[in-house]
Amino acid sequence: MSKNQEDMSSEAPAKLENKQDDKLMEKIVSFAKRRGFVFPSSEIYGGFGAVYDYGPYGVELAKNIKESWWKAMVQENENIVGLDASIFMSPKVWEASGHVSGFSDPLAECKQCHSRIRVDHLLEDAGIFADEKMTEEEINKLLNENKDKLKCPKCGTKGKFTEAKSFNLLVQSNLGNFTGDWDKEPTYLRGETCQGIYVNFKNVLDSTRVKIPFGIAQIGKAFRNEITARQFIFRKREFEQMEMQMFTHPDEDMKIYEEWRERRWQYYLDLGIKEENLQWHKHENLVFYAKAAWDIEYKFPFGFKELEGIHARGDYDLTQHSKFSGKKLEYRDPQTNEVYTPHVVETSVGTDRTFLAVLTEAFREEDLGEGKSRIVLKLPKKLAPIKVAVFPLMKNKPELVKKAKEIFDKLKMEMMCEFDDNGNVGKRYRRQDEIGTPYCVTVDFDTLETNEVTVRNRDTMEQEKVKVEELEKWLKKKFS
Ligand code: GAP
Question: % helix / strand / coil in the chain, to the nearest 5?
Answer without folding.
Answer: 35, 25, 35
